[in-house]
Design goal:
Layout: H1 2-17, E1 26-29, H2 36-39, H3 43-46, H4 48-69, E2 72-75, H5 92-109
Parallel strand pairs: 1-2
Length: about 110
Amino acid sequence: AWEMERFLQKVLLHRQYSSPTQYDVLLISPPPLNEGLLTGWLGDVFEYEVGMKKSTALKKWYREIAERYNIGFLDAGLYCQTSKLDGIHLDDANQRKLGEAVAEYIRNRR
């Protein structure tokens, strides 16, 4: 999560000093990995058990970062889940669910 915080710091500095307009920032925690990781081609890269624990913890860490920087937060895991094919990526249906959740978040902010 520290990588995301460093990236967010850069985005916020850009917004403050380089952007002609102010814009809202929404930090989205990804949905947790699932058992598809065991048989998927990326399973070795993400080390199943370690990857599962870290991916589950991300929503807590991302929420804390969002609160610290006073930006929006969305837990994608409440709206979609990763594909059973590889346990990491979203399939078409879940990508749509996430897009709808983001659109709803934006509508509610106005």
